[in-house]
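Exam revision sheet. Question 4 asks you to relate a sequence to its structure. Input first:
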Amino acid sequence: MPALETLEARGFVKQTTHEAEIREALAAGPVTFYIGFDPTADSLHAGSLVQVMAMSFLQRAGHKVVAVVGGGTSRVGDPSGKSELRKMMSDETIAANTRALKEQLSRFLTFDGDKGVMVDNAEWLMQLGYIDFLREIGRHFSVNRMLAAEAYKQRLEKGLSFIEFNYQLLQAYDFLELYRRHGVRLQVGGDDQWGNIVAGVDLIRRLEQTQAWGITTPLLTTASGAKMGKTANGAVWLDAGKLAPFDYWQYWYNTDDRDVGRFLRLFTYLPLERIEELDGFTGARINDAKRVLANEVTAICHGAEAAAKADEASRAMVAGAADASMPSHAVADGTPVVVALAEAGLAKSRGEARRLVQGGGVRLDNEKVTDIDTTLDGLPADGVVLRVGKKRAVRVTPA
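Answer key, structure tokens:
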């Protein structure tokens, strides 16, 4: 299946700038494309996976990826989709985050110089002279058109800083510079990047008399309306040091029934025929499809061995047994259960922990905890399973 048709069939395409031209170019031969990520943290999270997997599918179809880590643009901050000014980071933090993201993206993409390269836009943005940039680039931008863009309109109500107002110029300049350095003709990004992508397409047309293109991916929410990659406990990080592979596996296994087919298309490499089969599962069998989803997505991010261990630990958790692959939390002998619940992240506070116990939602192994004063005494060396409901559990071990 041609590349654009693959992206469409799997749900990656929201808007295109020149659909017929993009379809023809991707079908005719290798196209060099890019997606950028600003290193605002030392890990991407599951909300970034739509763009990462879109890159992967395009690369697998024979197209060359240029992954841009925005060491330069992260010093400015993109107002798109943000309600307030992004916190300014130190040069040291940006450098550390940039290194972490480069390593992380390498798990999903091949950077061998031929199939793909990774670059940092600080290479060219940090060298710009302000007056020269205004004269060469700034004169091609209409302030009226920029203010009409949704990203700026939303922020104008609460206040838009001048530094943020420059972001669209810098991203458009990235596209131009990537065209000049690497022959990039296509930019892919989230749908909140539409205005920035179109600005880059227009800038290349004006300065290089060449047609460039853009594709945006949908901004995902779950069927329940939650933002993709977010939970009550925070972001679903791709870094195993920030979120254990077991918890990552659990996030996908706990997918809303209505999202299973959609997530299988977006976040796994399974053939569409197999996904159609899994998407048809109903009743208790939907859990089998969720298990496939969790295993596939975890294997891509953390490796097949980590996925298998998480699957095994999940089965042990259902059986009420402790497993070494489960997240663990060490406690001193005599620690109250409500304290352990809060410290292990199964409850937001001790007050919430008490309410969970009183509501009958807490179990130690397979025994329901009914007394808020219950303590953890004489724990076995391999621990016990402290569980909230059916889907959240921690192996509690002696300190």
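Marking note for examiners. The CA atoms of residues 175 and 200 lie 6 Å apart.
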